[in-house]
Specification:
Blueprint lengths: L7 E9 L11 E11 L5 E12 L4 E7 L7 E2 L4 E10 L3 E12 L4 E12 L6
Antiparallel strand pairs: 1-2, 2-6, 3-4, 3-5, 3-7, 7-8
Length: about 130
């Protein structure tokens, strides 16, 4: 079965940034490195992002914006783009999920889902 023409895979690796976090102020800083790979058969450009960030108290932050880290990468089939960004939440554990809005070179617009991932201070989750 052929691959979906408009298909991207997204993987995320997170890290807790202890030196920027402050337990007393309920400030927990995390970095996340995202790799987005074009696994489809049509080149496409990442136009915008939408993140849903939820802390352990169910407080939700939504972030929308153009591109990622100031770029709108154009990815041909088989190409990938990697970037690192960060977020701050008020609990030691939280989650992020979202989507990228894409425009393919043939004009088709579609969203690529970013699967939910966990933000966790070390030694908090078992």
């Amino acid at each position: 079965m052929p691959a979906n023409r408009y298909e991207f895979t997204v993987t995320v690796v997170t890290a807790y940034i202890e030196e920027q976090s402050d337990d007393a102020s309920q400030r927990y800083v995390f970095s996340y490195t995202v790799t987005i790979r074009n696994t489809g058969s049509v080149a496409a450009q990442l136009i915008s992002r939408h993140w849903v960030i939820t802390d352990a108290n169910e407080v939700v932050q939504e972030v929308r914006g153009l591109g990622v880290v100031g770029e709108q990468p154009f990815l041909k089939p088989g190409e990938q783009f990697e970037y690192t960004s960060g977020t701050v939440i008020s609990t030691p554990v939280g989650t992020m999920r979202g989507s990228y809005h894409m425009t393919a070179e043939d004009g088709m617009q579609f969203d690529t889902e970013i699967p939910a991932f966990t933000l966790s201070m070390p030694r908090v989750l078992h």
